[in-house]
Amino acid sequence: MNFIDFVSSLKTVEDEVKSRAGSVFSALDRWSYGMMVNCLKSEDPMAVKTAIDQMVKEKKTVAVPPLYLVSVAHPTEWVRQQATAALPKLIPAADLKKLTEGKDTKQAVSALIEKYGHFRA
C-alpha cells in the first residue's frame, strides 16, 4: 500500500470510530483521538512511534483498529513492526487473530471497529 492510500484508509478508520463512538466521546476525547491518529499518518517514523507509545500508555482499546491498520499497511516496515508489537499490549493476541484471520485488511479493520470502535475508560 502506498503512503497516500494508507493515509486515506487511516482517515476512514478514524471517521468510522468517531461516528460509532457518537455521544460517548466527549469533544476532548474526539480531538485527542484525532490527534493521535493524525500522528500515525506522519511520514516521520519516530512521530508514528511516539503516537503508538501514547496509545499503548493510555490503554484505550479504541486505538486497536488504527494500530492494526498501521501494523499491516504502513509503508515503512519498522513502523509496521512497532505497531505489531504494541497491539498485544492492548488486546490479547488470540482476540486479534480471531477477528482478523482469513480476512483482507478492510474486512479485518471493520471487524476490529465493530468490537473496539467505541470509547471506554
* Multimerization state: single chain
The gross shape turns out to be: globular
Order of helices and strands: HHHHHHH
Query: What count of helical segments does DSSP give?
Result: 7
The tally of beta strands, per DSSP, is 0
Q: Specify the helix fraction band.
A: over 70%
Determine the N-to-C terminus distance: 33 Å
Which percent range describes the beta-strand content? Answer: under 5%
> Stretches where pLDDT falls below 50 for ≥5 residues?
none
**Rg (CA only):** 13 Å
List the helices and strands and how they pair.
Layout: H1 3-21, H2 27-40, H3 45-58, H4 64-73, H5 77-86, H6 93-100, H7 105-116
Helix pairs in contact: 1-2, 1-4, 2-3, 3-5, 4-5, 4-7
Could you explain how this protein is built, in words?
With 121 residues, this protein is an all-alpha fold. 72% of the residues lie in helices and 0% in strands. The protein has helices spanning 3-21, 27-40, 45-58, 64-73, 77-86, 93-100, 105-116. Helix 1 (3-21) packs antiparallel against helix 4. The N and C termini lie far apart (33 Å).
